[in-house]
Amino acid sequence: MNLIKIEKMTKHYPIGGGKFTALQDIDLEFKKGEFTGIVGPSGSGKTTLLNIIGSLDVQSDGSVDVMGNAIKSLSAGQSSRLRSKHIGFIFQTYNLLPVYTVFENVEFPLLLLKISAAERKKAVLEALEWLGLTDKIKSRPAQLSGGECQRVAIARAIVKKPDLVLADEPTANLDAENSHHILKTMKKINEDMGTTFIFSTHDTKVISYLKRKITLLDGRISKDEIINGGKL
Predict the structure, then answer these.
(1) How many other C-beta atoms are found inside a 10 Å radius of the C-beta of residue 213?
(2) 155, 175, 43: which is closest to 105 by C-alpha?
């Protein structure tokens, strides 16, 4: 089953009197349950592609369908609802709210879904247990290590049990030990919950966990391969 289908997609940005082409002629399909990385050097278009899949941006040409939604045709409200219900985001800078506790940071996406306080509490505690953070519930981000902050960010991304998690360089600010711990956790979530993960990365540690690797070079797909015994 295709979760995402991209056909002849191009993305231009205006620059001066002309335009810069960030992505060109992208054709991709992603199935439910994939653990896939978009890799390539800085400036190759990895983050742009991730942002379009996550409806944070729209393509210039071509089609992008995410879970039956044509990204370019969505209103701002529809895009927001798609992200709120179905997509979790993990960023390299964590993007935690500094004045909120760990519990409150993880709970935040659930407030947008208007579910009861009891349901929110149950979901947050379950996510924090998954990530080994039950002893940090009342802590604030400034009191946590980098690895703990990233685990909070992952808990926030999965607390609503999304169909899709988009992770942009999630290990960039972590040492090797924390990186492997985070990656093993995400792999377990992928296997146990069937959550689809798509990474933007050039970290060899991340690549060693992937089942599929899509290489971008100058905004084009140069290679799309199954690795590490993966299956599509």
Answers:
(1) 20
(2) 155
Total number of domains in the chain: 1
pTM of the prediction?
0.92
Backbone angles phi, psi at 192, to 5 degrees: -80, -35
- Within a domain: 43: yes
Tens-digit pLDDT profile for residues 70-126: 999 999 999 999 999 999 999 888 899 999 999 999 999 999 888 899 999 999 999
Phi first, then psi: what are they for 64, rounded to 5°? -135, 115
Mean pLDDT of 11-22: 91
Token duo for residue 227? 């690795």
Kindly compute the dihedral angle of the four CA atoms of residues 210, 57, 43, 167, in this order, to the nearest 10 degrees: -30
Tokens of 17: 């009197």
Distance CA 151, CA 136 (A): 11
Output the domain CATH number for residue 88: 3.40.50.300
Residue 232 lies in a domain: no
